[in-house]
Structure formats: C-alpha cells, structure tokens
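Students often ask what a 'structure token' actually looks like in practice. Rather than answer in the abstract, let us consider Aminotransferase, a protein of 398 residues. Its sequence is given first.
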Amino acid sequence: LFSPVEMAPRDPILGLNEAFNADNRSEKVNLGVGVYYDENGKVPLLRAVCAAEEARVAEQGPRPYLPMEGLASYDAAVQTLLFGAESSLLESGRLVTAQSIGGTGALKLGADFLYRLLNKRLVAISDPSWENHRSLFEAAGFEVVTYPYYDPQTHGVNLEGMLEGIEKLPEGSVVLLHACCHNPTGADLSLADWTRVIDVIQRRNHVPFIDIAYQGFGDNLQDDAVALRLFAESGLPLFISSSFSKSFSLYGERVGALTLVTESHDEMLSTMSQLKRVIRTNYSNPPTHGAKVVSAVLNNVELYAKWEEELAEMRDRIRIMRSSLVEKLAAAGVTKDMSFIERQRGMFSYSGLTKAQVARLADEFAIYAVGSGRICVAALNTGNIDHVANSMAAVLKD
Ligand code: PMP
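Now compare that with the structural description of the same chain:
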C-alpha cells in the first residue's frame, strides 16, 4: 500500500530549524522562525494568560464538547476586537464567527466553504505571501495566482502594481490580503492605500479574504484592524481569518477564528448553518483551552488592560530591535540605507539579503534566515544583535 508513496518536499522553514538545531556553535541565532521571543530568547507566557489559566484550573470545571462554532463568549469577543466596541456590525445580526484551530484553521475553513460557494475557484495572493497561503488554497481545490505586492527598490508596497494586478483578475476572484504586519515582507498599506484597494475590489466584484494574524504587533489593536473596518464600511461581504497565536503567545493552543460579514440576518443564519457542516465533517468541534483563556482575558477589564500592556511590550521591543539593527549595521560599515527595516511592521523584515548572502550567514556566522532574505526581528535581543549586525554587515559589504 505505501510503497508508491514518495517523500513530500521538505518545508523550507522546518528544514532551517533542523539545520539550526544541529549547529554546535554557541553564537548561533535562528532568524528563520515565525515566533516572538522575549529579551531572554524565550517564548513568553503572558501574565494575563497565566492569570486566566490559574482561574480555570481553580474552577475544576467539567470538560464537555464545545458547540461546532466554538465558545460563544470567545466568538463575540473576537468580533469586538476585530471591528471595535463601537461598531454597529456587532448588533447587526450579520456576523458569523466560528472559533478555529489557529489562523491556519480559519483559512482552511474559509477556503473549504468558498469552494462550495463559488464556481470560479481562483484566489489571488500577494507576491510574496506566507507560503502556506498558496499550499492551503491549492489543497482546498483552488487555482492560486499572485498580484504584485513588494517593491524591492523601496522595500515597501508596490501599490500601483498591486491595484493593476487586482484589477486584471477575472471578475469575482477571491483576493487574499494581509491586514497588517505583512508576512514575509513587513511592508504594509496606508489608510489611503486601503481605500484604493477596496475600490478596485468592489468594482470588480471580487471576494475579499483578509488574514489578520498579527493584530497589535503593528501600531496598536485599533489601527492594525483599520482595513477590516474600512472593508466593513464599504458594505462588501467579507471573509476574515484571525489568530491569537502571536498576540497571546499561545502558539500551540491553536486559537483563531473565521469571521464572515454577510449582507442580512437571513444570510447569516444560512451561512452559519453551512459553515457548521464544514466544521462537523473536518474536526467536529474546536478545542476548549485556548479559547477559554482568550475569552477570559478579552471579557475582563483588568485582564484586558494587562494583556494590552504586554502586547505593547512585545511591539515596543520589536521596534527597539529594528532601530538598533539599523544603527548597528551603519556602525559596522554598511553604507546602504537600511532604514526600511525601521519602517517595516510586525515580526518580519525583508532584509534585502540575497540567497547567497543568507547561505554565507549560516555557513560562516551560524545565523539562520529564510532564503528569501526574510528575517524575524522578534528573534533579536540585546545579547545576539551585535553578532547579527556585524555578520550581516560582513556579507552585505563583500
Ligand atoms: N497567516 C499568516 C500571515 C501567518 O503568518 C500565520 C502564522 N505564521 C498564520 C496565518 C497562521 O496562524 P496560526 O499559527 O494561528 O495558525
């Protein structure tokens, strides 16, 4: 039975982790990860999370199944976080939210649901995008194309190219967008840019699917969700995949959500009923723990304030690492303007390092980055940044 099975291609990032783990040099640094590390190089356990977990253990409650769409208090809190407490959408009866197995699970649910809904199964993702976007939609039966996104000259967004690319897609295509902290480039759209993107999507009857996996890592919880709020105001139907993996540092608990903005209460009811079928036939119902913790924090004023503070600490530390890296690269003799690293947002930076330079970083300096030149700025700390800056300078200068 299994003899014809060929080895699947290696995941490039997991392969990188293996190489990093096998490296014996003490100065080694892994910038290939997609995880926030604190100043001590550890994945933090947030104080707000700890408090919610202690309360949950103390409660000694039973462990029943959750409903297919997940914990109701969690789903409602997700909606408030996405659209803002003042949003009229919250009371509109038009929102569908289903707790999901991380942001990945939300994308998969959305993709499976769209597959049933659409005749034209074409999705456009940014060039470049998080690698799993393509694989996931292809696995769900979609043709995946790209629209221009990153401008290597400015290290920012190629807005005109993006608008043109989205315009040219066949009418009614699914357009996948990153709400903030674009992975892998760190290059985000401005408010004015979003208005223009929404305009093209609306004119071409495309279906917007917004992935928000880093809310709070860019500017703050509100501003990072501005695209969602603009889309919602435009009246377009909307798919949103959201994740708390990073913002709650709850990676392995798999806490995410799929939220849909429908056009009427009736649409909401029928859409939810169909979405539940997708859930039922995939995994029946989602896990409890992460959603209980997140819900406890989001629905408690004190814990919420504590969480927001901790989120700001993570965000500020990343910003400090960004400016420190720019400064140290200049001090190490890099004459090229690297200030784009400071302008980019979130955990990642498209550093402009070539594949050959990335290979040299690993071979000569034990610094591991993705071949595309993506570095995880959230893996820098005061203990490793000098080594990283000096090594980057060495490969950039030659
Ligand atoms: N979307 C993007 C853009 C991401 O970067 C990630 C995680 N790296 C996800 C979705 C998936 O999030 P999760 O880990 O919660 O499945």
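One point worth highlighting: Residues 12-45+304-397 form a domain with the Aspartate Aminotransferase, domain 1 fold (CATH 3.90.1150.10). Ask yourself how you might have guessed this from the sequence alone, and why that guess would often be unreliable.
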